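seq:
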Amino acid sequence: MAMIVFVTVAPVKSIAVTLDLTASSPCVCSTSAIYTFHIENPSETPFPTGITVTIPAGYTVNPAYMTSTAGIVVATGVGGTISPHTSNVAIVIKTTTTSGVFELFSDGTSLGTGTLTPPTQTTAGQWVQMFPTVAGNSWGEVSLISGFLTNPCTAGTYSWAPTIIINERAAPINPRTGYSYVVTITVCSPVGGVVAPTSKLEILAPYVVLAGLAVAVSAVVVVKRRKD
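struct:
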């Protein structure tokens, strides 16, 4: 007779932690976009497992920052407590001596490291434990430096889908009400309006008119002198 084994799986409890994302320049192929992550944990329970962020396919990580040279700043920000509200903690993420491994500091104290697997044009990347720990009753806002990422060159919506480990399983994190972690990449118009082709005659026309006026004035002067 076959034995039936019942396995109890702990349910994923409700997660108080939120994460949302904004991009300063959501234009196709932009190399200067700044991505800002806002994190909040209103509960008193810390999350030592940290937050993992998915970087959608199509993005490119600047290879200059996938380096074994330690101490290069790739993100800066500020944080504090939610109640009472404070904003007195400086947050920095730096490169380490291992390529793809980044260390997060809070007021100069290391809170741990995370490992970045860059995305490709066809596969998503992951920044495992981008934020290695999330303290209780805390918030933080961290911006990647300009030039760290290159936006996809295809317009569309791109979800960064953050997760956190609960009961040994990855659970999704929701954004704050009214916010999102989905970025819409668009085709942006050139600065200064629409660019239209211009013929050489249109460019030279003002100078031709000026030259004609100069000749006319010279002719008047010559005639006047002859009459004098």
